[in-house]
Design a protein that fits this description.
The protein has 181 residues and is an alpha/beta fold. It has five helices and six strands; from the N terminus they run αβαβαβαβαββ. A six-stranded mixed sheet has the order 3-2-4-1-5-6. α3 (87-100) links the parallel β2 (80-83) and β3. The longest helix is centred in the N-terminal third of the chain and has 23 residues, at 2-24. It is globular, with a radius of gyration of 24 Å.
C-alpha cells in the first residue's frame, strides 16, 4: 500500500504544483488598457516689473503658488514633468520635481508630436507646465476637440486633467481658489 501511495502522493503534488504555476500566468494587460493621466497647469505669477523681459522669473506669490502646486500633486506619483524652456515654467515645476525626484524635460508647444508624446507617457502620471495660450491648446489636442479657450493672463489657478485609457479620453478643468495666509 505504501508503494502505491508514494507515487499517487507524488503525482498529486506535481499536479498541484503545475496547477499553481498555471494560475500564476496571468494574461498580459493589453497596452490600450493602461491609463495615462496628464495634469496641465499654467506657470505661476510672473514678475511683470520689466515689460521688455520676455523670460521673467516668478514673483514671491508665484514661488508660493509653485510650492502649493507641488503640495496639490504630492499625492500623485508623477512619472514625468514637462515644461516649456522659460524661467517661469521651470520655476513653477521645480518644487514638484524636487519633491518627487524627477528631472524636468523641456518641450516646445509649437512642435509637439502628439502621438509620440502619448506613446512615451503611456500608463504614466505626467505634469505639463505651459502658458495661458499653450496649455488649453495642448489639452484640446490631447482630447481631440476644441473645448477650452485660451486662459486669462491672470489665471494661475486652473488645472486641466486629461485621462486616457485605450480609446477613451476624459477631461476636467479644476479652478483652485487659493487662500492667502
Amino acid at each position: 500500500m505504501m508503494k502505491v501511495a508514494k507515487p499517487v502522493v507524488l503525482f498529486l503534488l506535481c499536479t498541484l504544483f503545475l496547477a499553481c504555476k498555471e494560475e500564476q500566468k496571468l494574461p498580459a494587460e493589453p497596452v490600450d488598457a493602461l491609463t495615462s493621466t496628464f495634469y496641465f497647469i499654467r506657470h505661476a505669477e510672473k514678475d511683470r516689473s520689466d515689460p521688455e523681459n520676455i523670460d521673467p522669473e516668478l514673483t514671491q506669490d508665484g514661488l508660493g503658488r509653485a510650492m502649493k502646486w507641488a503640495e496639490v500633486l504630492d499625492h500623485v506619483a508623477l512619472d514625468a514633468i514637462y515644461t516649456t524652456d522659460y524661467e517661469r515654467t521651470s520655476m513653477t515645476a521645480a518644487p514638484a520635481a524636487v519633491k518627487q525626484d524627477i528631472t524636468v524635460q523641456y518641450y516646445d508647444p509649437r512642435n509637439v508630436d502628439l502621438e509620440a508624446f502619448k506613446a512615451a507617457n503611456l500608463g504614466k502620471n505626467v505634469l505639463v507646465v505651459g502658458h495661458s495660450n499653450t496649455t488649453p491648446d495642448f489639452v484640446n489636442k490631447m482630447i481631440g476637440e476644441e473645448k477650452y479657450d485660451g486662459m486669462d493672463d491672470t489665471d494661475n489657478s486652473s488645472m486641466f486633467i486629461v485621462q486616457i485609457t485605450g480609446n477613451s479620453t476624459t477631461d476636467i478643468r479644476l479652478k483652485i481658489d487659493w487662500v492667502k495666509n
